[in-house]
Amino acid sequence: MIPSQRVSSLLSEFKRFAFKGNVVDLAIGVIIGGAFGKIVDSLVKHIIMPTVSVLLPGEQGYLAWKLTFNGKDIPYGLFLGEVVNFLIVAFALFLFTVKFLGWLSRSKQEEAAAPPPPTRDQELLTEIRDLLKKNAP
Fold it and tell me: Which residues form the signal peptide (predicted)?
């Protein structure tokens, strides 16, 4: 095979791969997921954790919550914020995949379980069978 044909073939294969519906859908999902992550991060950092720090006793906000061990600070408040962030994202994904997609898969299973309507040949054979049963002695 000529090198220019190999390159052309490789480019056409890549084009088919890159512009398949699944790859584009995945890219859109990743972009929307990143935007959703930023929204949840902002919710945790600017609303939930400051509210928690107001409710708990202490003068400092959760960002300043630290343990000091051998002169080193361990900022556990930041860690708690990230844990809350993770839990919210995990819960949202759970709701979407189990409740929303689970609902879709159940309806598809119900459709698949329903038998297809009989063909015209099957209807005629059913009529003949019923007539034979009716006229049998």
Answer: none
- Please work out, in degrees rounded to the nearest 5, the angle formed at the alpha carbon of residue 40 by the alpha carbons of 88 and 52: 70
Class of domain 11-114: mainly alpha
Contact criterion met (CB below 8 Å) for 62 and 80: yes
Amino acid at 95: L
pLDDT in tens, 77-135: 888 888 888 888 888 878 877 777 676 556 566 666 778 888 999 899 999 999 888 88
- Whether the per-residue pLDDT at 73 is higher than 80: the answer is yes
Residue 77 CA to residue 52 CA, distance in Å, equals 11
